[in-house]
Structures are given as C-alpha cells and as structure tokens.
Specification:
With about 450 residues, this protein is mainly alpha-helical. Among the domains are: about 1-25 and about 90-110; about 35-75; about 130-280, Serine Threonine Protein Phosphatase 5, Tetratricopeptide repeat, CATH 1.25.40.10. The chain is about 70% helix and about 0% strand. The chain has 23 helices and no strands. The protein has helices spanning about 1-20, 35-55, 60-75, 85-110, 120-125, 130-145, 150-165, 170-180, 185-200, 205-220, 225-235, 240-250, 260-275, 280, 295-305, 305-325, 330-345, 350-360, 365-380, 390-400, 405-415, 420-430, 440-450. The chain is elongated, with a radius of gyration of 36 Å. It starts with a helix and ends with a helix. Residues about 25-30, about 80-85, about 105-130 and about 285-295 have low confidence and may be disordered.
C-alpha cells in the first residue's frame, strides 16, 4: 500500500514538472516599444515646459533630460524578439523526470532492506522532551558528577536525559559509566545496550550484545532486552532464533503493550523471509504480570502534559504501582521497579522500603542488594560515613560479589577509618582493575590508594 502511494506521488510530481515543458508555447505579446517611445517623448516635452516656467533650473533639467534620452535610446533598440524554441532541452528534461524516479526505485529494490527492525522501542515508549530543559539538566548533572564521579544514580539520570533528546552516543557513554560502577543492574545494562544500538543506527554491536546477554541473565523477561536480542539474531542471519524469542515475548506481553504492533510486524517479516510458519513454534499466550508497563494511551497522554503535570502524573502512577504490589507482594521485579521509580523521584526513603521488600523475597540477589545499597547511600550526607545499616548491606553484597565496585569503593573507606589499611588497599586495587584508564574518578581513587601506603 505504501509503495503504491509513493508511486502515485512520484507520478504527480512528474506531471507537475512536465506539463509546463510540454504544453504549446503561447505567442509572445505585442511589442511595447512604440508605447514606451511615445511616453519618453512626452516626458521630454513636459521637461521643456517645466524649465520654461522656472519650476526646475537648467542643471536639473539637463540631468533629467539625459536620463530620459538614455531610456528613449534603449527603447528604440529593443526589438523584443521572442526566444527561439528549444525542443531538445524539453525532451532531455522530460526524459530525466521520467527516468530518475525509476532508477531510484530500481536501486532501492537492489540494495534496500525494508525487513530490518525499525528499533521502535525508543521512539514509541519515550514521551516528548523539552530540549532546552533537558540540556540544562545535563549541564547540572555534569557539574555534580565532576564533584562526585561515583554517583551511579546521576550517571544513570544523565544517560536517560541524553537518550530522551536523541543524543544516543552521549547516553551510551553515561550508561557505560554507571555500568562500570554497578555491573549487576539489569536496567542499566539494558539501557546501555539500547543506547549503543541506536548510536550505531540500529546495528547490534559486540559491546551491545554483551550488555544484552548480561541484562537478560539478570532479567530474562525484560521486553526491551528481548526485542533487541532478537534483532541481533536477525542481523546474524539466525531468523528462527529471532522468531522464537519474539514469539515468546509476544506471548507474555499485555495486549495494550505499546510495542506489540511493531513486534508483530517484525515477526511477520521474519516469518516471510525465513519461510517459517509462526504458528508452528508459537507458544501459548500467558497472562501478563501484574506490574505491566504504561499503555499507549498513557504514553500519549503524558507527552501532552506540562513538566509539572507530568511529574504529578508520574507520582500518581508510581503510587498506583505500589498499591498493586500490596495485592501481589511476591512480584520481586515489581518491587525493584517501584524502588527505582522512587529514586528517580528523589524519594530515597521510600525506595529503601521497596528494595527491602524485594530483598526479603530474594535475599541473595546481588542486583537487589546493589539497588538497596544505592538507595541507602542516597540518604547519607556526602561528607558523612555510611550508616551501620548501609555497611551491613554493602558487606552482604561484597560477600556475594567480591569485585562489586560500589561495595569496594565505600567499604575501603570504612576499613581505612577502622585502621585496616591492608584490607582497604586490597579493595582499592581490585576496584582500580575495573576502572578505565581515562575514567574521571580514577585519579581520585589512585590518590586515596597512595594515601594508604
């Protein structure tokens, strides 16, 4: 249908261009020479009368006479001959107008790839941002991170803000910093992968693929990660794997999920190209989880609100999520989503409550403990040491993940303050092995390490 519409539009454009070229030329209008000469002669006579009456002096009359005579001479020489017809130019122009669209269409048929996924998640789920307000927030976040480069929450917020205004490369850099500090956050890994993919115009790079696999190992049902992992399979030529992953995602998605129409379109394209009947491998549709994402109507409504109204609407949605979780308290991922939403709203105390609920139900989950520790640290003044409760959470996290950057960074200070310099040095050494050489926080950590010698 789209191809037919584009063809009709091209034909209309050719007709508009070609008609003025092909239509018969009209005869040129009769020459104006005689009329102009008569006017200029009258002007000369009027000039003589004005000079005789003393209206103008001799010098002014001479200047005006010269100008009128110049125009009279030009009019006398003007033959106003009509331009000779140029049939060859007309034929060449018409031929180009007809051939170029056909050549372009043939080139697209040979090289185009309409089957590739359009990467719809970023465009369909995000609301419209105010670019100027976003840039101000970016500037403020960069100032904060210059003073506190280990703030995971601000790195994540910087990534999301850049992502919202289409700065995917900058978003990928920010999410990459957050992932370097907290490697077990499935949401950060998924956001990092998506930003990398969009920064590379839809190509799933090796770095993005690694981040996707890490995210799916921690959150196997995440819709974004599964969609892009299917796109990676498709780009690698493994269409059956892409179909199986996308069909499984479709089966467990709510009917009002904003990404379902595009997901189903990609399933149809992959099925057509591979010759695989989706019905032969389609799983049974499952009931959606209690804490499903916003509907398409929610997204559309949110995009039309002012910043203040949008914040209030978000708070209402988060409160609604909390109310639903009280009726389904075993939804661990729901509690984690609630906690992260509370952090975005700067409600660290409520975030701690949500992450603690998730921790009760899955006590040895490294990702949940990292979430909980981050929320607890957000309630700690910048110059104060971590509270005993936070230290306990960090020690549990380090026991499960001996190289967790968040735990190593803060517990090294705790051990140094307690006089355990050897332990603190070992922690900082393990931390430095994970930090890129050009990372802005590396110099401060190295200085701390030297101070313990």
């Amino acid at each position: 249908m789209l191809s037919i519409l584009l063809a009709l539009m091209t034909a209309l454009a050719i007709a508009v261009i070609g008609w003025p070229i092909l239509r018969p030329r009209r005869a040129p209008p009769p020459p104006r020479r005689e009329h102009d000469i008569a006017v200029y002669r009258d002007q000369l006579a009027e000039l003589e009368r004005d000079q005789a009456r003393g209206v103008i002096d001799a010098s002014q009359a001479q200047a005006a006479r010269l100008e009128i005579e110049r125009r009279l001479l030009a009019a006398s020489k003007d033959q106003e001959r009509p331009a000779a017809p140029r049939p060859m130019l007309r034929h060449i122009t018409l031929a180009l107008a007809a051939i170029l669209p056909l050549a372009g269409f043939a080139f697209y048929l040979a090289t185009g790839r309409p089957d590739l996924p359009a990467m719809p998640f970023a465009d369909q789920v995000r609301g419209t941002s105010n670019a100027q307000a976003a840039q101000r927030q970016i500037d403020e976040l960069q100032k904060r991170l210059a003073q506190k480069p280990d703030d995971v929450a601000n790195w994540a917020l910087l990534g999301r803000t850049n992502f919202e205004i289409g700065k995917y490369k900058e978003a990928a850099n920010a999410f990459g910093r957050a992932v370097a500090l907290v490697q077990d956050r499935a949401d950060l890994l998924a956001a990092y992968a998506e930003a990398l993919i969009l920064a590379n115009e839809g190509v799933v790079t090796p770095a993005a693929l690694q981040a996707l696999d890490s995210a799916l190992a921690k959150a196997p049902d995440d819709a974004n990660s599964n969609f892009y992992r299917g796109a990676a399979d498709l780009q690698a030529g493994n269409m059956r794997a892409a179909l199986e992953r996308w069909l499984a995602l479709e089966a467990r998605s709510p009917e009002d999920a904003v990404y379902l129409p595009e997901l189903r379109r990609q399933i149809a394209l992959a099925a057509k190209d591979s010759g695989i009947d989706p019905q032969s491998i389609r799983p049974d549709r499952k009931a959606p989880p209690v804490t499903s994402g916003p509907s398409s109507e929610d997204v559309d409504r949110m995009s039309k609100l002012s910043p203040q109204e949008r914040e209030q609407a978000i708070r209402s949605m988060v409160d609604g999520l909390e109310a639903r979780l009280k009726t389904a308290p075993e939804d661990v991922e729901g509690w984690r989503r609630l906690g992260r939403a509370r952090l975005v709203l700067n409600q660290a105390d409520k975030a701690i409550e949500a992450f603690s609920e998730a921790d009760k139900r899955r006590p040895n989950d490294k990702a949940i403990l990292a979430d909980l520790a981050e929320a607890q640290l957000r309630t700690t003044p910048q110059t104060a040491p971590p509270s005993p409760t936070t230290i306990a959470t960090l020690r549990r996290l380090l026991a499960l993940d001996a190289n967790n950057p968040l735990a190593l960074y803060f517990l090294s200070s705790v051990e140094a303050d307690a006089g355990n310099k050897a332990v603190a040095r070992d922690m900082l050494d393990r931390l430095l092995k994970q930090i890129p050489a050009d990372a802005p926080q590396r110099a401060a950590i190295e200085a701390r390490r030297r101070a313990l010698e």
